[in-house]
Records
---
Amino acid sequence: MDEVEEVEVVVAHAERATLRVGGVFLKVDADRARTDAEVEAMSLAPVPTPEILWRKPPVLAIAAVPGATLGRLGGAAAGSPAGWAAAGAAIRKLHDAPPPARTGRAGRSSAVLAAELDAECALLVAEGVLPADLVARNRRVAEAALRPWTPAFTHGDLQIAHVFLDGDQVTGIIDWSEAGRGDALYDLATFTLGHEEHLDEVLAGYGADVDLDVIHAWWSARSLLAVRWLAEHGFDPFAPGCEVDVLRSRM
């Protein structure tokens, strides 16, 4: 009997799951549109992406990419300043590319985002999840994200755990299901969320003037919108360095 590789559950919740078997990742998603978006985005992105091995809905099989991530939210960050700058340069290359026709997570209109924030803030307070003053302060900070922006090719979920480097070279960016047209500063804020100390290094590689107030606004907005969802899906936004600490840092 052939030896069977150990199966690792990378992430799993009601909407989707990712398993790793050796050098293969199996992504299972109940929403075929997300997988369609992921496959299209990887075919268009001008940055390294995983090789698609096969697809049989609802499963997408992709190859592991070489290298290691810069860390994760809530954990210690790794990598040299040159590595963070290389990530910034890759993000800029993505943002400069012609965007897909699809609107991604980072492409919500200001009106839609404002309504989502107001509704979520009300629930956070009403359900006693967060103190009212913490929510109110961050809602005010988040207001700076509600402004006109030029559509860019955005990843939409650019956590540092989704960017792999070998030394100071980007070897792959994974998890493209939220990609599409959107606000470039959303990606930059997501990538530096909880790791503010590396923002200057990322922007040095990105090579463009960036409104820091908007980056700060997206840190607040993204965290406010994520806290309840994370808690309901088995994650801990109250862990050190995670979303609630990001909100507290705005105080």
---
Amino acid sequence: MADAALRLSEITEQLTGAPPPLRIRAWDGSVRGPDGTPALVVRHPRALRRFLWRPGELGLARAWVAGELDVEGDLYEALELLAGALWERADTPRRLPTAGQRAAARSLLALAGPWPPPRPPREEVRRRRGPLHTLSRDRTAVSHHYDVGNDFYALVLGPTMVYSCAYFSPGATLEQAQHDKLDLVCRKLGLRPGQRLLDVGCGWGSLALHAAREYGARVVGITLSAEQAAYARERVAQAGLGGRVEIRVQDYRTVGDGPYDAVASIGMAEHVGAAAYGRYARRLHGLLRPGGRLLNHQISRRPRATGRAETAYHVDEFIDAYVFPDGELAPLGETLGALERAGLEARDVEVLREHYALTLRAWVANLEAGWQPAVAATSLGRARVWRLYMAASALSFERNRIGVNQVLCVRTSPAGDSGLELRPRTWRE
């Protein structure tokens, strides 16, 4: 069809009531839209089929991953413009489509061609089986995300191999900021030589190594990812810390060798889920000695005032399908309530939202700088998934759509003793 970009622009305006917020470059070479903006490149009509099959974010994401949809220009600016056109309208009341919108949808269907779109490759989208948050299903979900390949993650994360929010000071590099985050966690936990630390969701072993090397702690790190565990064990051996650090492939629900002086859960609780969160909090409480501390570092979402009953946990369709299967986000208040109901006393909350935006932008820059090796280490589809989700997440943190918080809790003694001294906060330097 001649001038497909014009038809897409017209259809978009009929469907949404506004012209496209960015340029459209179609498969026939035609271009329409406002000058000076990034271009949404529609490389094939299949992208339209995917959008019609799964309207909104997920359909667009599937077209992106398949390479049928791309961005020419600044990716962050393009995502921000699309967010204003699509995602920020998600909470508006739904109305029946008008006659003009129904006609536009028929035009889009005709432009899209044969129906339905092809299914995504099996390795990119996890197929779900069995009840939610069983031991086996959680193990499969974690493997989908973390067993992408250690070489791929090394390119994205850099030498620290830390896959959670860094802690930036002015002018700090990503590597310095990740070191400072690990040290912040250890100081909040009050680690001393010989104390036992349980690192729940230990990743590639960075916190375990830091706590053992810098604070003399004896650390057990647990993960459900076999690839992470193998990498972490190699790092422990190379550092000569085998006598102080043990890495296990183990679910937190099966840990039975407490009590521990401290427990760190950094970027792991998002995988726990609404139904299991109370059990998670009670389990960690039970693994702590009286006076022991828990540092829970977790992404949160904003509460919604929708006029309907609030749903405490939120699942993002694209993230759930392609990135973190079965992951759920809760408002900070819900997390605090669950930890307190488990018997833990919340002693400090620190919000790191802006820090995570900086972290994600640094990871995207690493991925883009090492694009060809990253693709070779995993696949083109997976690399495109990670670039999209990290860039979109950076914007979500910057715009306060989601947050991330460190919550320090204590298991008090039966007499109510927290073990904390009466003193000002000392972990921020």
---
Amino acid sequence: MPIRIPDQLPAQDVLLGENIFTMESDRAANQDIRPLEVGILNLMPNKIETEVQLLRLLSNTPLQINVDLIRIDNQAPKNTPQSHMDAFYHDFSQVADKKYDGLIVTGAPLALLNYEDVNYWASMTTILEWAQRHVNSTLYLCWAAHAAMYHFHGVMRELKKEKFSGVFEHQVLDPNNELLRGFDPTFFAPHSRYGHIDTSVYNSIDGLNVVASSQEVGAYVVASEDKRMVFVTGHPEYDPDTLKDEYLRDLQSGQTPKVPANYFQHDNPNEPPMVRWRSHGSLLFTNWLNYFVYQTTPYDLNQLAEKPQPKR
């Protein structure tokens, strides 16, 4: 798929090394088609790593996609050079008047903070409301999924004493939902979170349906019936070593984390990870782009209708 990303973005070399076709701005401008406009609000501290993970998943479709990387504030990011942010990211104010076919809002390492105590919570709620008017379909990942549930539906997540960390088996609950088209009845996906919302809570809200879940960690994919919002509580974008890196980081900081479940061979951190989620993660993003974005978005984005306010 020709995915159009900013010229000189470091992710370009990584993706080309994986034989993933990217397209620079000059070439894309000469194609006589209407590309999809997709924004990525990247809340993760290691921006570059997250960019590669998400752009890889957006690449498995024949659609041309223009990607805007968006930052929520001007605070110096942890683990990412300021020069990278200045070169490749848009301040939200720069894109506030633009309309998007799709928006991805990443997770964030904020699990133990109350939402109102997050430094950028006011900006976050502004963007959540903006997306209702300016985005055809929004995909919320992990922390962002719970934050959106809190903002739109007043649902407060429960914080578990022990982190859900590992690769868990999931079941397809609604095989007719287009997000899960091509999925096996059972599949694996990574989780790394303390927050939890019971499946019954999601299903009690008009217009929301849990379409995939795990007996161990609960709801995984929740979709609105109008396809305008998708909540994914795990991390289908994770690289093979991401959970390992998180585990080692926590050990080095003096914590006593549990070994990520069902992840290392024989549950031994000295052995390699078992990678069992990447095909379904890729398929989830491809289905979202095709059925929830491309097939529902207006050709003229100026005709995008405002989504009615959710009922609390």
